[in-house]
Design a protein that fits this description.
The chain has about 625 residues and is mainly β. It is built from four helices and 45 strands.
Length: about 625
C-alpha cells in the first residue's frame, strides 16, 4: 500500500500497472483517496525482489498531473536487487514512440527462450516510449519489447516485437547530483548530494511486425454477375485451383472460361466470367483447392466446395408508357472515363479506366491534339500502354508534355472493345498542362552518402507523396505543389528499393529509418536545397511533433512551448521544452533520469537554401 500527500486517481491501471517477476494471476489494484492498494494473488518466490511498476497510471485528483515512473519494490529475502536497464522503444517504420509496450528481459537466455518462455522481468513504456526495468540481479540480459496482445508475456508471430542484437550487463556508478534550491531572498543556490546512476540507460529498441499471416480462404463472393472474388489470408506464390463440381462442366478448369485479375501478392483474385452461357447461370458450385496453414504452421493443400450465388436486384416498377414501349432498348456501352485531372501535371501520362476488362484496342482510334494559335493540331503519341496497377482495364497515353499547353484527347467510337464485345462511344476531353511556375522543387544532400538511401517526401499526415532513391546521397523532387512537407529516409541495406521489416528467428533488424527534423515550406516557382546529416540529432528528437501521432498528455492548464518550426518538443517527463533552455540535459534532482539519445539536447538543424527560379 502507498499513501500520498493528496488525493489521487488511477488511470488504466489494468493496462499500465505491472508486477515483476510476471504474475500468473493479475493483481488487484485500487485507489481510495490518498491510498493505492495492490493485492498480489500469486504465491511469492523465495529470495526474490519484486517490483510494482505504476508507469504513468497515477494522477492527482484535482488537476490530473501525472506521476510518471513511480514504482514500489520489496524482497522475499534478506537483500533487494537494485540494478536497472533503461531505454526507449520506437516504431521502426515511422519512429513513433511506443506507448504501453511491454519490455521484457531474460538472463543468459537460450536461442529458443523468447518464443517458449515467459519474460523474467518486465516493464512498460510510458507516453514517450521510455522504459526502466528495475531491481535486476547482476548478469547479462537479453532485451525485448512486445505488444503483448494476448497477455501471455511471450511472443506470438503476429505480435509487434523488438529485440536488442546483443546481451547487456547492468551496472551502477556513484555520482554527485546537483540541485538548484530557491532561497528566501529569491536567489538560487546550488547544492550537491551523493547519488547513483544506473546503466545502460540508452537502450534503443525499434519494434516491427514480421508481417506473418496464416494462409487460409478468407473470403469469397460473387459481387456481380460477371465476376467472382476470392481473397486469401496471406500472400502466395501459387494460385488456387478452381474447377466445376456439378452439371455438364463437372471437373473442368474454371480458369479456362474466365479472365483473372490479381494483385501483386496473389491474395486478392477476381475472375471475370467470359462464357455467355455461364453468365446466365445464377448459382455456381465450385471446388477451390488452396494452400492452408495448419496448426504446426505448415502450408498444406485443402479443398473447399463453395457456392457462388448471384441474385439480380429488383427493379422499381415504372408507370406504363405506351410510347416508351415502342422504342428499342438502349445499346449497352463500355463505361470509359478519364481519371487524369483536367489541370494536368507535366510528369504524368493521360489515364483512362474502363469498368470491364479491355479485349482489344484500335490504336488508330486514339488521337491527341494540341491547341496551336487557336487551331487544334495533331501531335504524336509516344506510347499507349496499360497501367501496372490495373492492367486489364486501364489505358495510359504517354506524350511529350509542353508546360502551359492545352491538349485534347479523342477516342473514336468502336475504338475499344471489352471482353464481352461491348464498344465505347466517341469520347472527347480537353485538359491543360500546368505551367512550371506553379511548381516547386526540393533537393536533399544527405550524409553519410556511402550507403544506399531511399528518401520519402511526406504530407502533414506522415504519408508518403513521393519516393526516390538517393544515389551518392543526392535526390531531387521536381514538380511539387506548393505547401508544407516533411521527409524521412531509410537505409536500403539490400538495395531493393523497398523498406524491409525484421525477423526474430534470423536475428534480422528492420531497416533503419531517419527523419528530417524540420518541416519544409515550399512556395511556387522556388527551388529549395537542404543538407541532411541523419546522425546529427538523437533519433527520438528527429521526428517533428506536428506529424507525431503518439504525443504525451499535457497537464491541466499547461501551454506548450513551440520550437522554431512551430513543433512542440517534450522532455522525458512529458513537459514542453523551453526553447531558451533547449540544451538542458536533465531535470534537477533526477539523479538517474537523463534524457535519452545524448545529453546535449536538440541541436540546430542543418542549413537550407531557397531560391526563386529565373523566369
Amino acid at each position: 500500500e502507498a499513501v500520498f500527500d493528496e488525493n489521487i486517481q488511477l488511470k488504466d491501471a489494468f493496462d499500465k500497472v505491472i508486477v515483476s517477476p510476471v504474475q500468473t494471476t493479475a493483481p488487484s489494484v485500487r485507489s481510495n483517496g490518498r491510498r493505492v492498494t495492490v493485492e498480489l494473488r500469486d504465491t511469492l518466490l523465495p529470495n526474490t525482489t519484486y517490483t510494482i511498476d505504476f508507469a504513468d497510471a497515477i494522477q492527482d485528483l484535482n488537476e490530473g498531473n501525472i506521476l510518471d515512473g513511480f514504482a514500489l519494490d520489496f524482497s522475499t529475502g534478506p537483500d533487494i536487487d537494485t540494478l536497472r536497464i533503461s531505454g526507449l522503444v520506437l516504431e521502426a517504420r515511422n519512429l513513433e514512440p511506443a506507448q504501453g509496450m511491454t519490455v521484457g528481459l531474460y538472463r543468459e537466455p537460450a536461442d529458443t527462450t523468447f518464443a517458449t518462455t515467459r519474460f523474467e522481468r518486465i516493464a512498460r513504456t510510458n507516453q514517450l516510449g521510455q522504459f526502466t526495468v528495475r531491481n535486476l540481479k547482476e548478469g547479462r540480459y537479453a532485451v525485448y519489447a512486445l505488444n503483448d496482445v494476448n497477455r501471455d508475456n511471450r511472443w506470438d508471430r503476429t505480435e509487434d516485437v523488438a529485440f536488442l542484437g546483443h546481451l547487456v550487463t547492468p551496472y551502477a556508478e556513484s555520482i554527485t547530483v546537483s540541485d538548484t534550491v530557491r532561497l528566501e531572498n529569491g536567489t538560487d543556490s546550488i547544492s550537491s548530494r551523493p547519488g547513483t546512476a544506473f546503466f545502460p540507460n540508452d537502450v534503443l529498441l525499434t519494434w516491427f511486425n514480421e508481417g506473418y499471416r496464416a494462409q487460409y480462404l478468407k473470403d469469397y463472393k460473387r459481387p456481380e454477375r460477371r465476376k467472382i472474388f476470392v481473397q486469401m489470408g496471406a500472400p502466395a506464390d501459387s494460385l488456387p485451383q478452381i474447377s466445376f463440381v456439378e452439371g455438364p462442366l463437372k471437373g473442368r478448369d474454371f480458369g479456362e472460361m474466365t479472365l483473372l485479375e490479381r494483385n501483386s501478392t496473389n491474395d486478392s483474385l477476381t475472375y471475370w466470367i467470359r462464357d455467355p452461357e455461364l453468365l446466365a447461370v445464377d448459382s455456381l458450385m465450385l471446388s477451390v483447392r488452396h494452400l492452408n496453414t495448419d496448426s504446426l504452421e505448415r502450408l498444406v493443400w485443402q479443398t473447399d466446395t463453395l457456392r457462388f450465388y448471384w441474385r439480380e436486384p429488383k427493379k422499381k416498377e415504372k408507370k406504363k408508357d405506351t410510347d416508351a414501349d415502342t422504342l428499342p432498348p438502349p445499346v449497352e456501352l463500355i463505361d470509359l472515363s478519364m481519371t487524369s485531372n483536367t489541370a494536368h501535371n507535366v510528369y504524368q501520362p493521360i489515364a483512362f479506366k474502363t469498368a470491364t476488362p479491355i479485349g482489344s484496342l484500335d490504336t488508330a482510334a486514339v488521337h491527341l491534339e494540341k491547341m496551336v494559335d487557336t487551331v487544334w493540331t495533331a501531335v504524336p503519341i509516344v506510347a499507349l500502354r496499360p497501367d501496372s496497377l490495373y492492367p486489364l482495364a486501364s489505358l495510359l497515353i504517354d506524350f511529350d508534355t509542353q508546360p502551359g499547353a492545352r491538349y485534347r484527347v479523342t477516342i473514336d467510337s468502336l475504338g475499344i472493345t471489352d471482353i464481352y464485345g461491348l464498344h465505347n462511344k466517341t469520347f472527347r476531353q480537353e485538359l491543360g498542362v500546368r505551367n512550371l511556375e506553379e511548381y516547386s522543387s526540393l533537393k536533399f544532400t544527405v550524409s553519410p552518402d556511402t550507403v544506399p538511401l531511399v528518401v520519402e517526401l511526406l504530407n502533414d499526415s506522415d504519408v508518403p507523396v513521393r519516393t526516390a532513391p538517393a544515389p551518392g546521397g543526392k535526390v531531387t523532387f521536381k514538380y511539387l505543389d506548393p505547401g508544407t512537407y516533411y521527409a524521412r529516409l531509410w537505409i536500403d541495406a539490400n538495395d531493393n528499393g523497398v523498406w524491409d521489416t525484421g525477423n526474430i528467428r534470423d536475428s534480422i533488424q528492420p531497416e533503419e529509418v531517419y527523419y528530417y527534423p524540420k518541416r519544409i515550406d515550399l512556395k511556387a516557382n522556388w527551388d529549395v536545397e537542404n543538407t541532411w546529416n541523419i546522425y546529427e540529432q538523437p533519433l527520438d528528437r528527429q521526428k517533428p511533433s506536428k506529424i507525431k501521432k503518439n504525443k504525451p498528455a499535457r497537464k491541466a492548464g499547461q501551454t506548450s512551448g513551440d520550437n522554431e518550426d512551430g513543433d512542440i518538443e517534450y522532455d522525458e517527463w512529458g513537459e514542453p521544452i523551453d526553447p531558451t533552455r533547449r540544451n538542458a540535459s536533465s531535470r534537477p534532482g533526477s539523479g538517474n533520469r537523463n534524457s535519452f539519445g545524448g545529453l546535449g539536447g536538440r541541436q540546430q538543424s542543418t542549413g537550407n537554401a531557397a531560391t526563386p527560379r529565373n523566369r
